[in-house]
Design a protein that fits this description.
Elements lengths: L7 H6 L1 H10 L4 H10 L1 H21 L3 E5 L3 E8 L2 E9 L9 H10 L5 E9 L4 H10 L3 E3 L2 H10 L2
Antiparallel strand pairs: 1-2, 1-5, 2-3, 3-4
Helix pairs in contact: 3-4, 4-6
């Protein structure tokens, strides 16, 4: 597998797409039931192929990823094979960006010396989707980019 197998919940959510996928493989319900019962390794392979296909489609459409940790916020904007980033760091270990208080503190102290913001840019043309998947595996969440765009506007006025 290139990415990761979808969870049971994700597969249930994508049930109609999975049925269509199986149909493109010329597998009907009876044959699928038979595969699950008598050849589970082949059924697992079909789920893996479907999972990679779904991840590939999702990652191709990703424009923004946000990753929050206790002392850092990583904001990514994906434009083609280039990722632009902002890394926000609180110099005080007492600030926790995983809490509402930490986010409130950040909005009130954005321009103070206790907040360090770094801007970055990286070419990921070798494996765009693989690179984005690594960010997601580490805790990144696909977003609509509100935070990235607000910060970008604030810093580039």
């Amino acid at each position: 597998m290139k990415y990761a197998r979808l969870t049971k919940e994700q597969l249930e959510e994508l049930h109609p797409e999975f049925i269509t996928f199986l149909a493109t493989q010329s597998i009907d319900k009876n044959e699928w039931d038979d595969l699950k019962e008598n050849k589970p390794e082949i059924a697992e392979q079909e789920i893996d192929v479907f999972s990679d296909m779904i991840w590939e489609r999702a990652l191709t459409n990703v424009s923004y990823i946000d990753h929050f940790s206790r002392n850092y916020i990583f904001l990514f904007k994906c434009v083609g094979a280039t990722v632009f980033s902002y890394v926000i760091n609180a110099t005080s270990n007492e600030i926790n960006f995983l809490s509402q208080e930490g986010i409130n503190w950040l909005s009130e102290n954005m321009s103070s010396d206790e907040v360090v913001i770094q801007k970055g840019k990286k070419d990921i043309s070798d494996d765009r989707n693989g690179s984005l998947f690594e960010i997601i595996k580490q805790g990144g969440l696909i977003s609509k980019g509100e935070l990235f765009n607000k910060l970008d506007l604030l810093l580039n006025q």
